[in-house]
């Protein structure tokens, strides 16, 4: 059974195990969902509710975000048009231009497709 489990995406350990719906690495304590890793391998980016995102989509921010250098940040409900999917820094996978803020990268987990 160990042969069928994927290695840890963080430390590449082969000693991963299942705990409910999650995969767990005993060496680095990283936890991840097998659905997330399958979507990443396919290059599919999904929004917070599971809709597949593509370049040029319009999305809505679902929670208020703090932005360095901005007194107000990005409020929940802000529409962002013409997004571009990228392999960004950390979990940031959307490159966009937010009205009133400027160009920035967002995480797909904080947006919903319109």
Describe this structure in words.
The structure is a single chain. About 10% of the residues lie in helices and about 30% in strands. It has about 110 residues and is mostly beta strands. The protein is elongated. The strands form four sheets. The protein has a three-stranded antiparallel beta sheet with strand order 1-2-3. A three-stranded antiparallel beta sheet has the order 7-6-11, with no helix packed on it. This is Zinc ribbon domain-containing protein YjdM.
Overview in brief:
By secondary structure, this protein is mainly beta.
Keywords:
YjdM_N, mainly beta, YjdM_C, 114 residues, 8% helix, 1 helix, YjdM, elongated, Zinc ribbon domain-containing protein YjdM, three-stranded antiparallel β-sheet
Give the low-confidence spans. none
Element order: H for helix, E for strand: EEEHEEEEEEEE
User: Largest sheet, if any?
Assistant: 3 strands, antiparallel
Instruction: Kindly report the spatial arrangement of strands forming the biggest sheet.
Output: 1-2-3
Number of E-type strands: 11
Radius of gyration: 17 Å
User: In percent, how helical is the residue content?
Assistant: under 10%
Mean pLDDT across all amino acids? 85
How far apart are the first and last residues' alpha carbons, in Å?
42 Å
Instruction: Give the overall shape, derived from the CA principal axes.
Output: elongated
Share in β-strands:
25-35%
Q: Please identify the structural class as seen in this structure.
A: mainly beta
Number of helices: 1
Domain Protein YjdM N-terminal: 4-33
InterPro entries: YjdM, YjdM_C, YjdM_N
Protein name: Zinc ribbon domain-containing protein YjdM
Family: Belongs to the YjdM family.
